[in-house]
Amino acid sequence: MLRVGIIGVGYWGPNLVRCFSDLENCKVTAVCDQDHDQLLRIKDRFPSVYPMENFDALLDRALVDAVVIATPTATHHELTMKALEHDLHVFVEKPLAKTSAECRELVQKAEERNRTLFVGHVFLHSAPVIKLRELIESGELGNINYISSRRLNLGPVRRDVSALYDLAPHDISMMLYLTGQKPVSVSCSGFDRLNPGIHDVCNLSMRFEGNRMGMVHVSWLDPRKERVLTVVGDKKMAVYDDLDQEKIKVFDKGIDKPEQFSGDFADFQIAYRYGGSYSPFLREREPLKAECAEFVRCVLEGDVPLTDGVNGLNVVEVLEAADHSLQRGGQPIEIASLDQITVGAP
After folding, report:
1. In CATH, which superfamily holds the domain spanning 2-123+287-307?
2. What is the mean pLDDT of the chain?
3. Is the sign of the CA dihedral 289, 117, 104, 54 positive or negative?
4. Sign of CA dihedral 192, 197, 202, 203
5. Angle at Cα 122 formed by Cα 117 and Cα 124, nearest 5°?
6. 246 Cβ contact partners less than 8 Å away, ≥ 6 residues apart
7. Residue 258's Cα: distance from chain center in Å?
8. pTM for the whole structure
9. Which long-range contacts (CB under 8 A, 24 or more apart) does 206-209 make?
10. Of 4, 131, 185, 285, which residue is least crowded by CB atoms under 10 Å?
11. For the domain 126-284+318-333, what is the CATH code?
């Protein structure tokens, strides 16, 4: 039985308390937050948990075997490092940390202490994304040309991080998972309308090996809520709409080039293919509960998680490169050159 403590029970934390409490092989023994009233509300819903306002005191009480960090991004590195130094397994909500340097420190510490470091990229545990990966690996979609996504809504506006760091990690993690690789370079543009220095709208482009692209559009200033990811292959295309009842639709559509082309423009005839579409069967499950169960399983069985510290590092490297690009007016940034860039430099 794994004893779990939830650190941060504001917006997302109560969902984590609920999901971990529903699992048979773990028990939520403690919750920690600086908001006393929120702790009382959690205590009313889950009477068996021990509420605490001080994280260090929680670590010293030996109440838990693992902690779940659901606090603001700026605190992730410090809290995770303290937990690892107390030989606790750690689940950290996305992103793992603010910088790739901080992520590397956490990955190294987890390896030194032989502890599980798990990052909350929840969509990698969802049935639609798993199905997309199956469609790609089976070859049904053909060679992937690009993946695009739109994650838009009117709010909630954050003051501690930009829309890039708040929203884009979901789509970045999915694209890295679906392509099976990190991008070679990243470029990003956007604007900070509400709070200077905190971008409300961002357009991120990632270039992958094999002449493939990933494009992410995020905003908390949009009139309509959208959660759409499109995978365009040279055989078929697939659309994942998280707000649709039929979350995955596969389209037998595309453009066929002539097999032989002499170079004469008159001989170049493009054929547009308009085939049918279908929605594959999905074995539905709550992604967050599946994610929590996977964390517990990896801890108890000693397995390396799909969303381990290295996975979290890969996503933060893209975010960091995108942020550098934002500060440089959309200039492309090579992922391999991140270590040569001074953080905060213009």
Report:
1. NAD(P)-binding Rossmann-like Domain (3.40.50.720)
2. 93
3. positive
4. positive
5. 95
6. 279
7. 39
8. 0.92
9. 206/172, 206/175, 206/318, 207/183, 207/332, 208/179, 208/181, 208/182, 208/183, 208/184, 209/181, 209/184
10. 285
11. 3.30.360.10
